[in-house]
Specification:
single chain; 592 residues; alpha+beta; Phosphoenolpyruvate Carboxykinase, domain 1; Phosphoenolpyruvate Carboxykinase, domain 3; Phosphoenolpyruvate Carboxykinase, domain 2; 3 domains; nine-stranded mixed sheet; six-stranded mixed sheet; 32 strands
Length: 592
């Protein structure tokens, strides 16, 4: 396919403008075919960018530059005319100033390179909720990852036709020349910029993950959240799961969890309760919209998994391990001497020798980890052994429950049901976790991450909270039930009281029973908590007194949190909805 084959006048004009600005040597219109993917991989292997993995058929290892290993929140911008429209959770820049900065950086940035045009769809092509984007990039690594993470190619252009709407997404790895295997710009020249008032994304200087795969966090969350606010739907940082009871009844659950709180593990859970079946619909992003009957339907817009490798094992997530046995892209993992990948947390013996993520010889006596803590795998959803058959159904699935989950050692109970929708929004708006080594900041510090959307909400988060409240008003009695879960409660000895992983299905069972009205609950100031006999603990040997602690509402501990909670809500100023102020006041009155 060539430029002459493009029939969409706005796309052709934008492409010509970009070619003139960026100055590539060649242009390639992506068709999304297996042949295209294979050719790009062969080229990157020949250049030393990709390392084939004999132990995993069709799989390759990439190593990024050490300066380009994760999302760069400090260099991520929301560009709106009014600064307050971006809100306190975002870095703001004036759109005209940002465009001028980017024009200078993009000038001739693709000289000596190929410009790739990637037409892609977030969501099934025939879904009314799907959105089409076109990413222009100079990175073949981005192209092969987009092949897996989105629907790419000729069919997307056909759907777009000559008049369809698309979101322009421009990306360049930058002009850096220090690392021939991974080009990127210095940190102060990295820009991941979003223009929500124009539905445009521009990224420069980073080739890694969500900085460069512009369909993921950039389009599917930051831009989509603002679109959803304007258009009356929701774009959320959530897993999506189907549970089927022993009687054959289906339940669909969405869950928002900050980093290091077990979101992917829950998305691919293997239930320990006999007769219960779990199927994965998605592990990271959910788009939701009410249908004509007023019920909320949910769709995963992605086509693959971009997961954190370290900590993933047969013990923590056996289904993820099966998903990545073949046809997987690995980034910044360690390499074994016999041609496999390795990372910290794998449940097999540590090799006596590895090549680490920077290409250096590594032995177990070294202090530095062999794999980068944010090492990743990219794999097609179709490889997941528990992928739900309806994962790409155009209409999505009807949502029964929404979970918010944080990592709290002493405050939050194992599971809490919101008293009502407003209370549920308050639980989400005050979602907090204690930081781990994987988070920025001191270990154990309390970090608020409303709805797990702090890095991903593309507009003022006070307005975002109001959008949730408005959606609840619209859904009325058909709204999903909202719950707050915490798998990480600890005893006085510092040990976890709940086994987690597959046994989390016991909590999910109680949630399903509450949705059906089959079990009772005791009302507390923080929500409805399970009665001890209503949790199915058969075959589970909890420590003496553990259940009492797990189901304690933690009012005394919440009293200690209150100043931080009030400061967190105060950040949103006049944009904080009055209904959430009332929820905060009601909680404060109940604390000892």
């Amino acid at each position: 396919m060539t430029e002459d084959d493009l029939v969409h006048p706005k796309l052709k004009a934008w492409l010509k403008q970009t070619i003139d600005l960026c100055g590539p040597d060649h242009v390639h219109i992506c068709d999304g075919s297996p042949k295209e993917y294979a050719t790009l991989m062969e080229t990157m292997v020949a250049k030393g960018n990709a390392i084939p993995l004999p132990k995993r058929p069709g799989s390759y290892l990439f190593r990024s530059d050490p300066s380009d290993v994760a999302r760069v929140e400090a260099r991520t911008f929301i560009n709106t005319r009014k600064q307050d429209d971006a809100g306190p959770s975002n870095n703001w820049a004036d759109p005209d100033a940002m465009r001028a900065t980017l024009r200078d950086l993009y000038k001739d940035c693709m000289k000596g390179r190929t410009l790739y045009v990637i037409p892609f769809s977030m969501g099934p092509l025939d879904s009314p909720l799907s959105r089409i984007g076109v990413e222009i990039t100079d990175s073949p690594y981005v192209v092969v990852n987009m092949h897996i993470m989105t629907r790419v190619g000729t069919a997307v252009l056909q759907k777009l036709g000559n008049a369809g709407a698309f979101i322009p997404c421009l990306h360049s790895s930058g002009k850096g020349a220090g690392n021939p295997q991974w080009v990127c710009a210095p940190m102060d020249q990295k820009y991941i910029s979003h223009f929500p008032e124009e539905n445009v994304i521009a990224s420069y200087g980073s080739g890694y993950g969500g900085n460069a795969l512009l369909g993921k966090k950039c389009l599917a969350l930051r831009l989509a959240s603002a679109m959803a606010w304007r258009e009356g739907w929701m774009a959320e940082h959530m897993l999506l799961l189907r549970l089927t009871s022993p009687e054959g009844k289906r339940y669909h659950i969405g869950g928002a969890f900050p980093s290091a709180c077990g979101k992917t593990n829950l998305a691919m859970i293997t239930p320990t309760l006999p007769g219960w079946k779990a199927e994965c619909l998605g592990d990271d992003i959910v788009w939701m919209k009410p249908d004509a009957d007023g019920r909320l339907w949910a769709l995963n817009p992605e086509a693959g998994f971009f997961g954190v490798a370290p900590g993933t094992s047969r013990a923590t997530n056996p289904n993820a391990m099966k998903t990545i046995e073949k046809n997987t892209i690995f980034t910044n993992c360690a390499l074994t001497d016999d041609g496999d990948v390795w990372w910290e947390g794998l449940d097999r013996e540590k090799p006596s020798h590895l090549t680490d993520w920077q290409g250096q010889s590594w032995t177990p006596d070294k202090e530095a980890p062999a794999a980068h803590p944010n090492a990743r795998f990219t794999a097609s959803a179709t490889q997941c052994p528990i992928l739900c058959q309806d994962w790409d159904a155009p209409e999505g699935v009807p949502l029964d429950a929404i979970l918010f989950g944080g990592r709290r050692a002493h405050v939050a109970p194992l599971v809490t049901q919101a008293l009502n929708w407003d209370h549920g929004v308050f639980l989400g708006a005050t979602l907090a976790s204690e930081t781990t080594a994987a988070n920025i900041g001191a270990v154990g510090k309390l970090r608020y991450d409303p709805m797990a959307m702090t890095p991903f909400c593309g507009y003022n988060m006070g307005d975002y909270f109001q959008h949730w409240l408005t959606m609840g008003d619209r859904l009325g009695t058909k709204a999903p039930a909202i719950f707050y879960v915490n798998w990480f409660r600890k005893g006085k000895d510092g040990a976890y009281l709940w086994p987690g992983y597959g046994d989390n299905c016991r909590v999910l069972k109680w949630i399903c029973d509450r949705v059906d009205g089959k079990v009772g609950a005791r009302e507390t100031p923080v929500g409805y908590l399970p009665c001890a006999n209503d949790l199915d603990l058969s075959g589970l040997n909890l420590a003496p007194g553990a259940l009492d602690v797990l189901l304690d509402p933690g009012l005394a501990e919440r009293k200690e949190d209150q100043p931080q909670l009030e400061a967190h809500l105060a950040r949103f100023g006049d944009r904080l909805p009055q209904r959430l102020r009332q929820q905060a006041a009601a909680l404060a009155l109940c604390l000892p």
